[in-house]
Design a protein that fits this description.
Helix content: 40-55%
Number of helices: 9
Distance between the termini: 37 Å
Number of strands: 6
Length: about 180
Amino acid sequence: TGIIKPLSRWVIEAALKQLKVLREKGYQLSVAVNLSARNLQEQDILDFLQKMLDQYQLPASSLVLEVTETAMMQDPDHALRTLKKISDMGIALSIDDFGTGYSSISYLRNFPLDTLKIDRSFVTALKDGGEGIYSSIATLAYGLGLSVIVEGVETEEELEAVLRLGGDEIQGYYFAKPMMHTELD
């Protein structure tokens, strides 16, 4: 519909504005925001990101941009150039929903990623014998020098399995559901 650019920019600005408030309260947090394939094509995305970081006086390291493998594969060469420039700014990059799209592992090796997020579908599959696939994804990530975030942990059983199988950070309803920023304290 053509609204992804203004919508993404609004989300990035709102997230950084809220992060500034939280950091002023003493929370040493970063914020992760999804970036679409169209955002990767924007000519001025780097300028916008720098403007927002400057406006809210935040270090680049406080922002994590999450990109799906599908977004990276739409135009891999352009995506690689853009992501390298974003990484050079000091902004962390995460591949989101890994394993749910289609990508070449050789491309992953070339992208300047910091983190791989294991999709919830692999967490729910743990109860049905999916440990081998989960472990393979974590091993792949570590082999590429990436940290691992596990998304969608909702039960104690899933948490126990993930803690046993690996992951550097864990997110999901087991810990907290989405909430208003006023509820965060």
